[in-house]
Amino acid sequence: MSIDTATAAKVAKLARIKVEDDDLPALAQEFNAILGFIEQLNELDVDDVAPMTSVEPMRLKRREDVVTDGNQPDKVLANAPDAREGFFAVPKVVE
């Protein structure tokens, strides 16, 4: 697959990146180089390679999933503009 300047302009527009018309050929070349690297990776035989999430095998630390109130209501409400009876107080918005 080859990327031309029109496609490079479309990708830049979709990415919300302003690219001058003079720079579009260079951008198209960079896209083509990236696609070339991807094609090289697709040529590799990785059938016997196990997927991994890290360079070193390790087990993630886990904790028991328990729902709590945080046990810090005073700290939570410290920056509230208006707090009453341990809750955030907000203006009434529904009549």
From TrEMBL:
EC number(s) stated in the UniProt entry for this protein: 6.3.5.-
Known catalytic reactions: L-aspartyl-tRNA(Asn) + L-glutamine + ATP + H2O = L-asparaginyl-tRNA(Asn) + L-glutamate + ADP + phosphate + 2 H(+); L-glutamyl-tRNA(Gln) + L-glutamine + ATP + H2O = L-glutaminyl-tRNA(Gln) + L-glutamate + ADP + phosphate + H(+)
Gene Ontology MF: a single term: transferase activity
Keyword Isomerase carried by entry: no
Top-level division of the source organism's lineage: Bacteria
GO biological process, one term: glutaminyl-tRNAGln biosynthesis via transamidation
Keywords, ordered alphabetically: ATP-binding, Ligase, Nucleotide-binding, Protein biosynthesis, Transferase
Coiled-coil residue windows: none
Alphabetized Pfam families for the sequence: GatC
HAMAP family for this protein: GatC
Assembly information from the UniProt record: Heterotrimer of A, B and C subunits.
Function statement: Allows the formation of correctly charged Asn-tRNA(Asn) or Gln-tRNA(Gln) through the transamidation of misacylated Asp-tRNA(Asn) or Glu-tRNA(Gln) in organisms which lack either or both of asparaginyl-tRNA or glutaminyl-tRNA synthetases. The reaction takes place in the presence of glutamine and ATP through an activated phospho-Asp-tRNA(Asn) or phospho-Glu-tRNA(Gln).
Family: Belongs to the GatC family.
Protein name, as recorded: Aspartyl/glutamyl-tRNA(Asn/Gln) amidotransferase subunit C
Species annotation: Roseicyclus elongatus DSM 19469
Protein encoded by which gene: gatC
